[in-house]
Every structure is written in structure tokens, then in C-alpha cells.
Design goal:
The chain is built from 24 helices and 29 strands. It is α+β, with helices and mostly antiparallel strands. Strand 17 and strand 18 form a beta hairpin. Helix 2 packs across helix 6 and helix 18 packs across helix 20.
Length: about 800
């Protein structure tokens, strides 16, 4: 049985709350006309009853112009802050406290030939990008003429939005650590003789042996080598933009593997209708700005609908008139640290390929509000940012990332995908796609496919698990072509699913084509596969139910290990969990107890098996590895591993029961997981600015089931509280070919402006799991039209 009762029960309490918004907001009808510079011909925008805008344009340029304008209308402050951060322009608006962050961001601006990069982008893709930029700027110009409609943040903070430039889509590559901290950790563990302990926190998948690159002195490696990659070395002034938890390495690691998703594609042979079904629910941050914005773009040669990332042209998950598409994170090791030897007495030179070479250096002035501009020097080695330098030790560290390679113009990839017409043209579009992705596909002819995409570096002499000497012997030699990445077309099983698990095919030559050894635990995938295998006639309703399934495979594993003869103190906990069906439901007391017990058990096993000398580096246990050790009675548990396991589980049950009483009260009948596991959304700056907190009231009250490991992923950071911090704020199921049957949800709404009726209208629907129709055909859209706007050239 698919367990989605958690949603229905969680929503019941919310319905009774004052100000419940289950009723659809009223939107005035009629047609509004707006004159805007940058549009080339009149553009019609039909907003349906659910707030989804449908853009009807005479050209692809104007369709993307409409998207840019509408995203800026609904999310201007969100996209403006992200652009300021990525371009290193925060200090000019907010003062000296952002200089370090701005310097780090500018280190990751592309320094190559931008004109050449633009010339290499397909002409129709570039034209659409220019349309999107023009649309954003048209909204900014409109607000400059009438500031009364500016998002509230600008008046409170006393700033103005930045105008956009298509060249910035090439320049801004974004700072990201990748797995650099993993490389440092392994090197430091090796220097202590404790490298094997790393597998307890980060098991290698597929199985792999550690090999230290020749010439690497692991004893010389330290966390200082991360330099500006470590968020602690580039603090900003707004903690919510760089949350305190981000400075915790273990929290960063949890977040990296939480940023996953579920997707599945079901072939016509296994659906009730004989049409393919594609489902996708990307798991991103929940609690701050919504990471998705809905739009429908139509023009000659273009007809795509779905959700896009605000500030990124195009649709990331949705469908065209020909095919549906979805995506989950595929894991590619796209970064490496290279340890450079610098010249004694001349630290501006480094040894590479048998000679001393000068760093490429760039000087820039960072404008600073209320203070003089600060000049910074940015260094590169072969285009790789220098993230740390220690002239006294003759040492510098270069950070190799595919994001800084020529051609890594990720911000154009969605456009190319949206303009594609079939599998063959998509595989050409994928060559622009940099980030690691499982791409799911299903078309109106009944074909389904899976293609892994993203820039994968070729490493001729090492595996990417450790820093490597920067003398040139370990340099990358290009990237794998799309054709050499794992893929399948019309799988024989009739379905395919991905949930960030290790999904390299058994016959894939992974030793010759190294992709990654770090993947998410397989619990979500295994549950999805369990359900899909049992459904020979899959329906849209089945996909919706699976997206909201709260059955926990780790909970099943724990219940199997409950001691047969528990202590008197653990007996009540054992009895409650044995009666439980392992569903992490909002109204479940057993689920609440389980969520208390599991981390306590993890801590107890951690203290038993992780060497004390490694604990500052190996800071947690991998859940799948811990459950395996307990199930197999691993000898590392002690001389009598069976008895040790029972004692560990018993102790965690006792401590978990006490914790449940502390948080839920003395009566287990009153315990409910949803009382702790709530969905609260607040402005990213609310904690640091009282005026913003007052202007943007929290969206709160909803209770949720699920956790990190259920298909309905609802992650949380127990260091802070049990509030939902990760999950699927956007959900989508496509009935391929019968497009008006498709369904979606978006949390909390289209607009980030509390003055808009679209600010939180989807919050109760999302809590209840009540998927909404994604109208697509002209007839359906016109039938459900709530408002029309004509954008005309000024």
C-alpha cells in the first residue's frame, strides 16, 4: 500500500486554522495592456485560475521576453540577490562585511574570451537568452518609472535592482566547493593512518580501493588548503543568505546529498492508458525562497510548460508538445584540488610541466557602500582559481572545476532542451549541460529514455578522491562526450527510476570512465522500485500517490533488529514499534519515536566503531553503512557483535523513549510526528531585519510526515529543529500526449510578494498533497483563464 495518509491527516488541522487559504484567490478578469521596451511584437499572457501564466508570442525571443518579465514581476528581489552574490556585488549595496564574499565570488567569474563563448552558442538559443534578459530589464525599467510597485525589500533596505546583461550569463560560473572537503579529509586521515575510517561516513560506490597520487605529501595537507572554498573564510553579513548551519561541514554534507530528487518514467506497456507517464519531484531547500516558478512559453517552434529556476531562462521540468522531461541529481565528481609548488623568492610563479609559470592575475575594484573601494588581486593557474596561498611554505592550491572550463555555459542549456523536438535533438542540446543530471524522457510516440548528462572530467592518472600534485602530470584531458555517459532508450523493464542512488549500469566501464564514488543512499529509489514493479497498469493517480509515499525502508530495517528480550525500560518502545507499519506519517506516535531513536542509535554505533583519533574528521556514520553493520553483526561492534547490537539498539530505544516524552508529553497516545515536523516558510532576511520580518509574515502552521529517506522526502536538520528544510516544493506528473491530464504542485505560490494573492495560495494544497491540473491546450487554458495581459512594444 502506498502510504499518503500523512498528507490528508496533516492537512486536517491546517484547514481548521484561522485564515485558511484552501479557497482559490480571486483574480480580477479583463485585459490589461502594458507597453514595454524590448518586446518585438505584441505578447499575450493568459493567467489561469491557478496562477500559471501562458505566454503566446510571435517569436521565440518574445516568448522568453515574457518569461523574463514575469519572473521579475514575481521574484525580482530573489533573482537580484542571487545575481549580486554570484557577480560579487553585494558590498556595493550592503557595505564592508561582504567584501570577502565578493572577492571569492569574483574569483569564479570566467576570464576567457566571452565573445567567443557567445559565438559558440547556437543562434536560436542565444536569441532566446537575449529575450529573457530584455524581459527582466523591461520590468526593472517599469519599476524605475513607478517605484510604488517595487518589491517591499528595496524600500526597506534602501537599494535598487541591478540591470541584467547577457554577457553575465557567460561570466558568472558560481562558487561551489564540490567534493574538495572530501579530498582534504581523506588526505588528512591517510596521514594519520586512519584512511579506512572514511568509509564509515562516505562509503565508496561502486567498490573501490584508495590510491594516493604519486608525489602527494598527505601530511602537508590541511583544511587551510580549502581557502576561500570554506564558507567560514568568506562570511557574508546576512546569516540567512549564508546560514550558520552552512559553516558546519557535516551540515554541508547532509545538504549536498539532500539536494536530490525522485523521477520515474513508465512505458506505455505498463500504464493503464497505453500512454507513457513521467513523474518528477525535485528536492531542494524548503523554508526560504521558492526554487521554482511556473510558466508556459509558446511561439512558432516552441510550446513548453512547467517549472523553471528563477533567473535561469527556460523550463527545467515539464513538457513540450512532443515530449515530457524531468531530472534528478546524478553524481559526478566535477572538481579537484591541485597542490602547486611556488617559486622561492617569487611566489607569483608555480612549477608546471617542467618550467616555472606566472600565475594569471587580475585586479578589480570592489565598490563598498559607505567605505572606499577595495582593490583585490585574483590569481589563476591555467584558468583554475587559486583558492589558497602560503608563500612561506612554497605552496598554493588551485581548484579545478568543470564550471570554469570554456564552453561551460550552463545557463543556456535549458533553452536548448526546450527547443528540442526529439531524443536525437536533445542529445545535441545536452552538450551545453554542465551540472550532473539524470534526464528522464517520454514522448508522444511512446518512447522513453534516460540519459546522464553533465561535464565529466577525464583524469588520466588519478581517481579524484584525493588532492593531486599540480605539476601537470595529473591535469585533466577533456570531458567525456555525452555518448559515453550512461543512458538507455526504451528500457526492456518498461520503467526507469532515479533517486540519486548509484545507478551506473553493471556493464558500464566505470574504471576507464571515472564518474563518481559518492552517491546518496538507495532507500528512496528502492521504495520507488518496489512500488513500480508491482504496478503493471500504472496510472497518474499511482504516480501522485508514490510522490507522497512515506514508507521508510530504514525503519523496516530497524524494526527487524528490535531485541527479542528487551530491557524493562525498552519494552514499551519495542511494543510500539512492532505494531507500526513503518510509515513516517504526520499523525504517528511510532514515527515520532523512530525519529528520536535513529539518531541516538547512530551516535552510539559511531562511538563504538569510529576511532577516537578520526572523529574530528569522520563526524558521522552513513545510515546505510550503519544499518548494514548492525544487520550483519559486524565484528567491529565488539567481541560478541550479536549481543553488542542488541545492547546498542536497546539503549537507543530507552533514550529515544525519554526524548519522545520530553518533546511529546508523558502519554504516547498523544505523540504525533507532525507536531514536531512542521513546514515554516520565512523571508531569507527575516532573522536579520525586523522590518522585513514584519512586512513578510511567516507562512506556517502546517504539519508534515516523511523524512530524508521516504519517497516523500521531507528532510530536517535536527541541530536546529525538526522543521522541514528539504523536499519537493514542486511536483509534476505528465500524462504524455493527453497533456491536460497532467498534474502539479508548487510551494508556497508563484509570487514572493505578500501583497499578491499568489503569495501562499498553494501552501495548504501542497500540505494536503492535492495535485492541481496543469492546463496546456489552448482550449483548456482559455476555459480557465482568470486574467489577460498584452505586452506591447514601447
Amino acid at each position: 500500500m502506498i502510504q499518503r495518509r500523512a498528507f490528508l491527516l496533516a492537512s486536517a488541522a491546517f484547514v481548521a486554522m484561522p485564515g485558511s487559504l484552501f479557497a482559490k484567490p480571486r483574480v480580477k478578469g479583463g485585459t490589461q495592456k502594458i507597453k514595454l521596451a524590448g518586446a518585438r511584437a505584441p505578447i499575450e499572457v493568459v493567467e489561469d485560475e491557478l496562477g500559471v501564466p501562458h505566454i503566446r508570442a510571435a517569436s521565440k525571443h518574445d516568448a522568453f521576453f515574457g518569461q523574463g518579465y514575469l519572473v521579475a514581476r514575481d521574484r525580482l528581489f530573489q533573482i537580484d540577490m542571487e545575481r549580486r552574490r554570484d557577480m560579487g556585488r553585494m558590498a556595493e549595496a550592503f557595505g564592508p562585511r561582504f567584501v570577502a564574499a565578493d572577492k571569492a565570488a569574483r574569483l569564479f567569474l570566467y576570464r576567457g574570451d566571452i565573445d567567443a563563448e557567445l559565438a559558440a552558442i547556437p543562434a536560436d538559443v542565444l536569441e532566446c537568452a537575449k529575450g529573457y534578459i530584455a524581459g527582466v530589464n523591461a520590468r526593472i525599467d517599469e519599476l524605475a518609472a513607478d517605484p510604488s510597485h517595487l518589491p517591499l525589500e528595496y524600500g526597506i533596505l534602501g537599494i535598487s535592482p541591478l540591470r541584467w546583461d547577457v554577457r553575465d550569463l557567460v561570466r558568472g560560473r558560481g562558487i561551489g566547493m564540490g567534493d574538495a572537503d572530501d579530498e582534504i579529509r581523506r588526505a588528512m586521515l591517510h596521514a594519520r593512518g586512519l584512511l579506512e575510517a572514511d568509509r564509515l561516513m562516505a562509503p565508496l560506490r561502486p567498490a573501490w580501493s584508495f590510491t594516493i597520487p604519486d608525489g602527494l605529501d598527505t601530511a602537508a595537507v590541511s583544511e587551510a588548503d580549502l581557502g576561500v572554498l570554506d564558507p567560514a573564510n568568506r562570511p557574508g553579513g546576512f546569516e540567512p543568505l549564508q546560514e550558520a548551519a552552512w559553516f558546519d561541514p557535516e551540515a554541508r554534507r547532509e545538504d549536498r546529498f539532500a539536494q536530490g530528487s525522485n523521477a520515474w518514467t513508465v512505458s506505455p506497456s505498463r500504464t493503464a492508458t497505453g500512454r507513457p507517464i513521467l513523474a518528477n519531484d525535485p528536492h531542494l531547500g524548503i523554508g526560504r525562497s521558492s526554487p521554482r516558478h511556473m510558466c508556459h512559453l509558446s511561439a512558432p517552434g516552441l510550446d513548453v510548460i512547467g517549472a523553471g529556476a528563477p533567473g535561469l531562462p527556460g523550463i527545467m521540468q515539464g513538457h513540450t508538445d512532443r515530449f515530457a522531461f524531468g531530472r534528478t541529481n546524478f553524481h559526478i565528481d566535477q572538481t579537484d584540488l591541485f597542490i602547486l609548488r611556488t617559486k622561492e623568492g617569487d611566489p607569483g610563479r608555480y612549477w608546471h610541466k617542467g618550467e616555472w609559470k606566472a600565475f594569471e592575475s587580475f585586479e578589480e575594484d570592489i565598490l563598498v557602500k559607505g567605505a572606499p573601494a577595495e582593490r583585490v588581486t585574483l590569481r589563476y593557474a591555467n584558468g583554475r582559481p587559486i583558492v589558497s596561498e602560503d608563500a612561506a611554505r612554497g605552496r598554493a592550491v588551485a581548484f579545478a572545476t568543470v564550471a570554469m572550463l570554456p564552453g561551460a555555459n550552463a545557463r543556456f542549456a535549458m533553452i536548448a532542451i526546450n527547443l528540442s523536438t526529439d531524443w536525437a535533438s536533445l542529445r545535441q542540446a545536452f552538450k551545453l549541460h554542465v551540472s550532473p543530471t539524470n534526464f528522464h524522457y517520454a514522448d508522444i510516440d511512446g518512447n522513453t529514455g534516460w540519459q546522464t548528462i553533465g561535464f565529466t572530467p577525464r583524469r588520466p592518472k588519478h581517481d579524484g578522491l584525493f588532492p593531486a600534485p599540480g605539476d601537470g602530470d595529473y591535469d585533466w584531458t577533456g570531458i567525456l562526450p555525452v555518448e559515453d555517459m550512461p543512458h538507455v532508450y526504451n528500457p526492456a523493464e518498461g520503467w526507469f527510476a532515479s533517486a540519486n542512488q548509484m545507478n551506473l549500469p553493471k556493464d558500464y566501464p566505470y574504471r576507464e570512465r571515472i564518474i563518481s564514488f559518492g552517491w546518496s543512499d538507495p532507500f528512496r529509489y528502492d521504495r520507488c522500485a518496489e512500488v513500480l514493479r508491482a504496478q503493471p497498469e500504472h496510472r497518474i493517480e499511482d504516480s501522485i500517490a508514490l510522490q507522497h509515499d512515506v514508507q521508510s525502508l530504514p525503519a523496516r530495517a530497524l524494526v527487524k533488529m528490535l531485541p527479542a528480550a528487551p530491557s524493562a525500560e525498552a519494552a514499551q518502545a519495542v511494543a510500539l514499534l512492532k505494531r507500526w507499519d513503518c510509515g513516517i506519517e504526520a499523525n504517528s506516535g511510532a514515527a515520532m519515536l523512530y525519529e528520536m531513536v535513529l539518531p541516538l542509535l547512530s551516535t552510539a554505533v559511531y562511538e563504538r566503531v569510529v576511532p577516537a583519533a578520526a572523529r574530528d574528521l569522520v563526524t558521522s556514520l552513513n545510515l546505510a553503512e550503519m544499518l548494514r553493520m548492525l544487520a550483519e553483526r559486524d565484528k567491529r561492534l565488539g567481541d560478541d557483535p550479536a549481543a553488542a547490537r542488541d545492547a546498542l539498539v536497546d539503549g537507543a530505544l530507552v533514550a529515544g523513549w525519554r526524548k519522545a516524552i520530553e518533546l511529546g508529553g508523558p502519554d504516547p497516545a498523544g505523540w504525533q510526528w507532525g507536531d514536531l515536523h512542521r513546514v515554516t516558510i520565512e523571508h531569507p532576511l527575516a532573522a536579520s531585519n525586523r522590518a522585513i520580518a514584519a512586512a513578510f509574515p511567516k507562512i506556517m502552521g502546517g504539519r508534515s510526515g516523511g523524512d530524508w529517506n521516504t519517497p516523500m522526502a521531507r528532510g530536517f536538520n535536527a541541530r536546529r529543529n525538526f522543521d522541514v528544510s528539504h523536499g519537493a516544493s514542486y511536483l509534476f506528473v505528465a500524462d504524455v500526449g493527453a497533456w491536460d491530464n497532467s498534474r502539479f504542485l508548487l510551494l508556497p505560490g508563484q509570487s514572493a510578494d505578500p501583497r499578491s494573492p499568489r503569495y501562499r495560495d498553494f501552501y495548504p494544497l501542497w500540505l494536503a498533497g492535492t495535485m492541481q491540473p496543469l492546463w496546456y491546450s489552448k482550449a483548456a487554458v482559455d476555459r480557465h483563464a482568470a486574467a489577460r495581459t498584452i505586452l506591447t512594444p514601447a
